[in-house]
Amino acid sequence: MGNRSQEEIPRTLRLHGDYWSVTDTEEVCLSGFQCTACGAGYLPAITTCSKCRCTRFRPLELSSEGCLYTYTVVRGSGGVWPDVYTIGYVDYPEEGVRVCGHIGETDAGRLRIGMKMKVERAVLYRDRDGNDVECFRFQPSESGR
Ligand SMILES: [Zn+2]
Q1: Rounded to the nearest whole angstrom, what is the distance from the C-alpha of residue 53 to the centroid of ligand 1?
Q2: What is the mean pLDDT of residues 49-65?
């Protein structure tokens, strides 16, 4: 084994890891689920399709870009969270999925409803044990001004 003890090394934990993966070229892909009966898309997963009540789903890889549906800049929430962060919903019209997640931009002047959003990997916070907790995060892929 190596000479580094696992206890001494802060780990990086993956949040919601079922829904995102990173390619060899560091591109982040979101994947949800699609109803096998009516084609409705979901992320996160649900047990029963809200459109047709079917309970069977197949994996659904989302497009590399979505568009910003809405957002809010959160301040002073406390706990493990940063002083300022942005959370929002991004639509993937082709797949019919609306995804909730963090947004890397905290300047509301640089965000515009409907703007194109890409996905990246980011550390969202450090937990109480000193581990970085990473997840997918949205980032504008065009200028908001
Ligand atoms: Zn359905």
Answers
A1: 6
A2: 96
Report pLDDT for 8: 60
What's the CA-to-centroid distance between 69 and ligand 1, angstroms?
A: 23
User: Residue 104 burial (CB < 10 Å; 0-12/13-18/19+)?
Assistant: middle
- Contacts by residues 106-111 (CB-CB < 8 Å, ≥ 24 positions apart): 106/73, 108/71, 108/73, 109/144, 109/145, 110/140, 110/143, 110/144, 110/145, 111/68, 111/71, 111/86, 111/140, 111/144
| pLDDT, mean of residues 58-66 | 96
- Model pLDDT, residue 18: 87
| Residue 40 CA to ligand 1 centre (angstroms) | 5
- 46 alpha carbon to ligand 1 midpoint, in Å? 11
- Å from CA of 56 to ligand 1 middle: 8
| SS3 (DSSP) at 43 | coil
Evaluate if residue 11 carries a pLDDT over 90: no
Distance 87 CA to ligand 1 centre (A): 28
